[in-house]
């Protein structure tokens, strides 16, 4: 398993904007209301804290590579190398550099396959908030 954990505050903000744009999820209410629901695990997908803690506790019992989103942003090449090594593969430098380039936030934000721009407005209303914000 590859598990990517993200800072709770950033995850909360991201989920809030996703809830706002999603036409299939309940309205998140005000930021204060959503904050309370997130902290108490009363959001779709449940408690962030329980989820991350659960995976962290079993990381040594199973084949789990635990990664952190912030590390991926700071040094993507190093984190991709971890994934490659975890999978028992070898990639030459040119392929590794291409993966870093193609998986950059900027590139993915421009790509309709990852930015969800082809999803109908009736499902994700990106006039409310873009799927990939910042």
Summed up:
The chain has 8 helices and 2 strands; from the N terminus they run E-H-H-H-E-H-H-H-H-H. It is mostly helical. The protein has a single domain (2-110), classed as P-loop containing nucleotide triphosphate hydrolases (Rossmann fold, 3-Layer(aba) Sandwich).
Structural write-up:
The protein contains eight helices and two strands. The two termini are 26 Å apart. With 134 residues, the chain is mostly helical. 53% of the residues lie in helices and 6% in strands. It has a single domain (2-110), classed as Rossmann fold. The chain has helices spanning 8-21, 31-39, 48-58, 69-74, 76-86, 93-102, 105-110, 112-115; strands spanning 2-5, 65-68. Strands 1-2 form a two-stranded parallel sheet. The longest helix has 14 residues, at 8-21. Keywords: Cytoplasm, Transferase. One of its GO terms (molecular function) is sulfotransferase activity. It is found in: Cytoplasm. Residues 2-134 form the Sulfotransferase domain. Its EC number is 2.8.2.-.
